[in-house]
Amino acid sequence: MKLYRPRSIGLKQALVFVALFGAHGVAMADAERFEADLRALFSEGGTLSIGDVSSAMLRSRLTAEDIVFEAEEGERLLIDRYIVSGDYDAPTDVTLEGLRIEDSLTELTLMSVERIVLGEPSQAVFPLHDDALTPEQVRLGSLAIDGIVIELASELAEEIFFDTPLSSGHGRMTIDKLRGESLSHEAIGMLEISGMAGVFDELEELGSGSFTLRSLRLEGLTGIDKEGEEKLASLVLRDLAVESPELVARLALFDLDGNFDDGKGGVRLEGLHMDLARMIELAPEDERTQLRMVSNVLTGGSGELRLDAALLGSWQEKDEHSVLISDSQIDIHDALSLLLDINLPLLLPHEVTPSDAFSNMEWLEDATLLGGNIHLSLANQGLFSRLATLGAAMEGVTEALYVEQVRTQAQGFGMMFGPEIQAILVGLVDLLEGSAQHLDVRVTLPAQSTVTSYMSDPLGVPGKLSVKVETR
To answer: Where is the signal peptide (predicted)?
Structure first.
């Protein structure tokens, strides 16, 4: 008969055992800290209950379940799970699942969120007390929120949408996704909202209606901690639709390039469509006749106003000077098209960069203009003929007589302000008459001048410039 003799524990196994035991102790300590921080978070003005706090030792994860906070003001906060992953003092991410804010008296859900993920937060639990953290201590590497529903008729919505029209409205808003990167008290690296929709009532001037938004993305927002120093590098809005008694409109794209460090930027607007006919139907009856007159002039009777625009600028550095270039276009379909090209060589004031120049145009007053040219092209696509018809009807005269009256007035203004202004005004009358469909105005600046000199004598500006006007 052999007696069983236990094997001796090797050094490797012993180290593993000690490590697991130590990790278990650390995990238990972190779990206690986690629960203490949660209770401190809701320590003022209400009661808190936590169903369970547990730790997953091997996966470095702490989980608090069934958190319920009853505020003295009558609101109830519920969180199904609050999960901290990674080192408790420097988490890889913090996840909140099943978050709801309810009115405990009416049982109405004021706000619900399916899931919130805070990537690389500066803390596992952010205290709510104003004096608990300085703004510099609140940072997020990334942010992901899914399934947001907000009731607009609540004090909570007023706080969320403070100083916006939504703060005073009634209705409901839903957001499929919200994503963010590099978030702090002073800057936002990126923030994107996708799948937004809402119904509203009593929303200031818009009244009652609905809206949808495919996406809104902003990048490079800085200076938000200092009033008046905010800068936005980029904002792109896609597929916005609004329907209300005051506004029935769609917008395919709004693209703002506000980062002028690369020497260019501007705004693009694509696919703006306003259903004027529908808006007139929803307007008070005593206002409809006048609104139809305006609609007919702008749309030729279709009742649908469509507009595209691009207001773009760029900056070029030459050997001894800079060149400011603007290439802009506004197209109101079936009404008019406007093109504006600007090419201005100039000397900047000392230490003014192209980025400074675009962000604050006050420097232009001190710049020296080295000639340059401006080209304005206006193409009539039906607007001017409709203006002539409307003007004649309001005056109770024939269109021919109305045009002659306007021409006489244009010539009179020309005698007051000079032949350059007279040529432009008479060209506009040619568009009104229908004898021309295009008006081109080309302005050439003198070899050296300043904006200040033009501002000090505005009536004398046309005489200082070379102006050429053509109609065809």
So the answer is: 1-29
